[in-house]
Amino acid sequence: MRMNLSEVYSLFGARFKDNDVPVKGVTADTRNIKKGFIFFAIKGEKNDGHLFAAEAVKKGALVCVTEKKIKGLPCIVVPDTKEAIMNLGRYYAAKFNNLKAAAITGSNGKTTTKELLADFLQEAYVTRKNEKSFNNYLGVPLTLFGLDNKTQALVLEMGMNHKGEIIKLARLAPLDAVIITNIGRAHIGNMGSRDAIAGAKAEIFEGLKKGGTAVLNGDDGYFKFLSAKAGHKVVSFGTGLKADYRISSVKESVSGTKFSLNGIKMDTKLKGIHNIYNIAAAAAAAGVLGVDLKKVKKALKTFSMRGLMRFEEIKVKGASVINDSYNANPDSYAASLMALKQMKRKNLVIVSGDMLELGKNSRAMHTETGAKIAQIKPSALLIYGEFARDVEKGYLKSGGKAKPECFTDLQQLKKALMPCLKKGNTVFLKGSRGNKLEELIK
């Protein structure tokens, strides 16, 4: 890292009395502590980091940033450790003023688009990105602390559950480009309406440098709204004739998708039209940052989402298991079902978990999803969670033939799934992160 311990004390207005030393890293997880690290004690939903401060020091932490003094430990006391780690992230990112930087938000496709853009930029620059979906008040600063003298480009995914969250993340690093993939219904239970979601996503424009560019979905119903909000140059992507990065000639197959982007033929193993939009968004931002479509085409040939629980296919006891269980909302679920249909798999077993944070719309949206599941004609349907009966209702009402089974216990679901794990079957897992459907695979 390019930072000394005295700088951290100075930033938080604490008195520094020791000999100055370089900071080797920053973390909020004692499992990651190494000698020379700074530990942030953050109160989470399940654990309070203050309870692990002594362990952090024992493992070699130089100091703990806490919300209260802990006797016998070196502490910098701040009012809010969540705000403090973002403030330190902003301070550290400012040391790298020559970076080419982009950020991504949207209701669906954020992580895929982030991974794509990082791969595209890697063709020309040494690139840093969020790991997995570490896209919140903690994940974004931790990504910034990974910057070093070799880093030339930065890609940040930014998520939100409530208004006012993205603006804090967007202001952590000066951005040359921002992408909003789309405006859907994710977190509508918290936000209340798609209009409110669009307004919250638009907060990302606050991070743009002077002369920066907003990359927007020209086919999205909120394109005009977001363009007006941007206050910067807008580059569009989509299927429309006026799109700056125009998708055309899409041909889907069981092995992937062929398409053209601004007339250049592309080939990808990714499935579903939603992923072609993600590719176009990433290509547009890459173009803003100086990477042309020829380099994009080259990177796309080997691109993979392995290890991220997004349409990741593995073999389990002879069956093909497609793990798409990182997250779910009605729009992402519908897109995944379209991709499944494209694959033309026989003996399809769907394991469907609850979609969370939909509020008063939950039952209706689960019923809607059940109806869409019926359209792809699975040979078996196992439904898990509080809204399982609503999915079943929509499925049966829309003519679903396989008899659904509903579960509220993960172990019972696992027991029912075991006979489906045989050669010739494809098992598809989809649900919000809170369902922990990946535990079925483990």
Task: Describe this protein's structure.
The chain is of the alpha/beta class and 442 residues long. It folds into three domains: 5-87, Udp-n-acetylmuramoylalanyl-d-glutamate--2,6- Diaminopimelate Ligase, Chain: A, domain 1, CATH 3.40.1390.10; 96-300, 3-Layer(aba) Sandwich (UDP-N-acetylmuramoyl-L-alanine:D-glutamate ligase); 312-441, Protein-Tyrosine Phosphatase, Chain A, CATH 3.90.190.20. The chain is built from 16 helices and 19 strands. A nine-stranded mixed beta sheet has the order 6-7-5-8-9-10-11-12-13, sandwiched between helices. Strand 2 (37-40), helix 2 (53-58) and strand 3 (63-66) form a beta-alpha-beta unit. It is globular. It starts with a helix and ends with a helix.
In spatial order, strands of the major sheet run: 6-7-5-8-9-10-11-12-13
Helical fraction: 25-40%
Report the uncertain regions: none
Q: How many domain modules? A: 3
**Main sheet specs:** 9 strands, mixed
Total DSSP E strands? 19
CATH superfamily of the largest domain: Mur-like, catalytic domain
Percentage of residues in DSSP E strands: 15-25%
Number of helices: 16
What is the CATH-assigned architecture of the largest domain? 3-Layer(aba) Sandwich
Morphology call: globular
Query: What is the average per-residue confidence, as pLDDT, rounded to a whole number?
Result: 94
- As a whole number of angstroms, the C-alpha radius of gyration is 23 Å
Question: N-to-C terminal Cα separation, in Å?
Answer: 36 Å
